[in-house]
Structure formats: C-alpha cells, structure tokens
Amino acid sequence: MMKRAACFEILARHIGDAALVATYSSAVDWVDIAPRALNYLSIGAMGLDSSHGLGLALGRPDQRVVVLQGDGSLLMNLGSLVTIAAAAPKNLVHLVAQNDTYEANGSQPIPHPNIDFAGIARSSGYAASYDFSDLRIFEQQVAHVLEQQGPVFATLHVEPTKPLKYDYPSLYDPQKRATFKAAWNS
Question: Which of 71, 112, 160, 174 is 20 to 30 A away from residue 27, measured at CA?
C-alpha cells in the first residue's frame, strides 16, 4: 500500500498546466505539496469534486482536468461515474485515493472495504481505468495515465493517514478561487 502524500508528490511532478479539483483530505495534502493557481478546491462539497471536475472539463475541452477524490467522497456521489462516462470528456482524469475510510469525518470505515472503484468506472464506460497499490508502478505509469484520452480513472490504494488539520479559512480563501478563475480564463 502507498502513502497518499507520496502519490501526490509524484503527481505534482507530472501535472503540468492541468486544472486540479480536490476537496477535504485530498485538498489538504495537495495544497501542501503543490500550491498553484490551477488548484480548484471545492468548498464544503464532499462527493461533488468529480461533478465539479466534469463541469470544468466540459467547459474547457482544450484544458486537462484532474480530479483528486477520496473513496468516501466518491461513495457520496457514485452516480457521477456513469454521468462522466456518458459525457465522455477526453480531457478528464479521475484519481481516487482509496483508504477505506471517511477520513474527513473522523476516519470511520466505509461500509464495505476493498470496493473495486476501477472496475465500477470501467463498467460505467470510462475509456481507461487503473488500479495502483505499488508506488514504483504508479511513478512509472502516471505520465501515461495523464496523457490518455479520457475519461480516465485510477484508484490509488493508500494507507489511512493520521488526522489532518483542516484550516478551512485558508483552504477556501476566496482569493484562491479568484486566482484559479484568472488562471483558468487566461
């Protein structure tokens, strides 16, 4: 199993000028690793990060969009997989950090551990789906995953982390949204 922060550090080296959508634990880890103008942090929108990513991808088909979502978050909006697959945005990459917990809400276990999210994405109609539990393999394949025509899905099997500090005023500072908007529209 991998550490989420280690996966995100690798992703940060390959993300380029893609927009990145994240909420809660994924957002906290990501902004510590890769503070950048094209980070779209969904405010109080657990489960909606994939939907926000879809909207951005459809609105700007010329711009790559990467969604970083937790497994608990995806479970709150599992139907988004079918919606994304039906819309078929070629510029969307959807990564789910699976640690089998609702980490943002106290790390309670999800109802059924070891759900095959990549299999669900595949059967929903995603163009490609992957499962990563070995950091070396993820590092070898991440560039390929990010370059493929989407929608592309990948599960990152990660260890639960220690409780994170959620500094919501900083994380969701309106200036960050304004910075994203300016970078997105440039």
Answer: 112
CA 129 to CA 80: how far, in whole Å?
A: 15
State the sign of the Cα–Cα–Cα–Cα dihedral 135, 136, 138, 142.
positive
Q: What is the mean pLDDT of residues 94-98?
A: 95
Closest CA to 96 of 33, 172, 154: 154
Q: What is the pTM of this model?
A: 0.92
Domains of the chain: 4-184 (3.40.50.970)
Please give the Cα distance from 181 to 178 (Å, whole number).
5
- Please say if the pLDDT value at position 105 is more than 90: no
Q: What is the mean pLDDT of the chain?
A: 90
**Distance from C-alpha of 100 to C-alpha of 171, rounded to nearest angstrom:** 24
pLDDT, tens digit (0-9, with 9 covering 90-100), for 32-52: 899 999 999 876 777 899 999
Which residue type occupies 32? D
Specify the amino acid at residue 95. Answer: L
Q: Where are the beta strands (DSSP E) in 13-163?
A: 19-22, 39-41, 65-70, 92-98, 101-102, 108-109, 128-132, 152-157
pLDDT at 101: 66
Residues in the chain, overall count? 186
- Going from the C-alpha of 162 to that of each of 41, 66, 68, 155, the distances in angstroms are 21, 25, 19, 20
- Beta strands 39-41 and 19-22 are parallel
